[in-house]
Design a protein that fits this description.
The protein is α+β, with helices and mostly antiparallel strands. The protein has one domain. Helix content is 27%, strand content 29%. It is built from two helices and five strands, in the order βββααββ. The mean pLDDT is 89.
Length: 82
């Protein structure tokens, strides 16, 4: 099973997709995530694409936090800090 990550920024939520892009609402947030934190923005090798994308989102979008991360078959809920 492929890893997945969810980020929240205010009331907006985005989820990583297997193709290295983001799915989010509203569409403007999805566009921002895909511009600043898609697979194409990762420099070098990463063993976990979804986690790396979520970390980029946290670093590049003010107020954005990882709220859920699923590495393979396990799910880890992370308390969001707002």
């Amino acid at each position: 099973m492929e890893s997945k990550a969810t980020v929240k920024c205010g009331g907006w939520e985005g989820k990583t997709r297997p193709d290295g892009m983001w799915e989010a609402t509203p569409p403007q947030f999805e566009e921002q995530l895909n511009t600043l934190a898609s697979r194409n923005q990762i420099e070098g090798y990463t063993p976990d694409q979804a986690y790396s994308m979520a970390k980029l989102a946290e670093e590049r979008i003010p107020g954005c936090r990882i709220t859920k991360y699923t590495p393979g078959d396990e799910t880890e809920e992370l308390g969001a800090i707002y």
